[in-house]
Specification:
The chain is mainly alpha-helical. The protein has 2 domains: about 5-85, no CATH class; about 90-155, no CATH class. It contains 9 helices and 2 strands. It has helices at about 5-10, 20-30, 35-40, 45-50, 70-80, 90, 95, 115-125, 145-155, and strands at about 100-110, 125-135. It has a two-stranded parallel sheet. The radius of gyration is 18 Å and the shape is globular.
Length: about 160
Amino acid sequence: MLYPDMYEKMVNPVPKNQKVADFYLKLITSNKKSDINFAMLNFAPYEHSIGKLNIDVNKKQEVNEAYIPSTKIFLHYMKNHYFITDKQILKNIKKIEKIPTLILHNRLDLLCPLKGAYDLSKLLKKSTLIINPALGHGCQKNMKNLKKILNDFID
């Protein structure tokens, strides 16, 4: 929705008969450095950008080896549909509705909009929803505060 140009660049190399996750997972788990680099230059920029707003789409991409493990994990989850079926949690809400649950969510998460977490918190009778005012999908900048929230909840 926000990065169709980056999406197009990412999917263009994928053969029509293959799924994006299958294609890039095969490359990134290859023993050939050229395959890994190809995946990191074509898939990783998209994956690392989709939850953010201030991305320079014209910036020359370089392979950052520190991102290889997280990109492998992301592709593994993507290939396996995140190990969850469509609406699995909502279809089984009765099984978990009374479990004390803490839901932490960034208000401006473009990848996973707040509405889903908000609606889930309404269905879980013993849930607490904490909305972090942060932008984006990650929460690295606020870890100290998030650790305190988690510790308070566990206590």
